[in-house]
What does this fold into?
Amino acid sequence: MSDQQHEPPPPYSPYSAEDASKFSNYPVKGAPAPEMSSQPSYTDSQNTQSATRVIQLPPVAIAVSQFGQFPVECDCRYCHAHIVTHTSKVAGALPWIVMGICFVLGFFLLIPWCICCIPFCIDSCLDVLHTCPACKRSLGRFSRI
Ligand SMILES: [Zn+2]
It folds into this structure.
């Protein structure tokens, strides 16, 4: 048992370091294939053409629905100042609809009618009105419906 464990390992590679350096040069000399060298820059020109196609896409109108429920940084279209819009909560159509539903259900389900005004106190039910802090004009409105 112990004799087999202490046997010297077999030589890993029959080649020395000098032979390895000769081998590393060998595939480089015979590497270039005639098919690859016949069309050197064709694929490069194709890549640049596809890149310019992506850039030439028509510009997308961003200013349509840019107003959300939070203040937005934009240019005022009235005074042309670069501002962050001032937001204020405004009761839109949604709290009136919820109030109407609660009022009708109050006849049948004994829901107290005082909760009908709750939607007007919840920010998530109110529209957001964006105004310019410089010229105080209305720039847009974020509607819940
Ligand atoms: Zn303005």
In short: The CA atoms of residues 9 and 72 lie 73 Å apart.
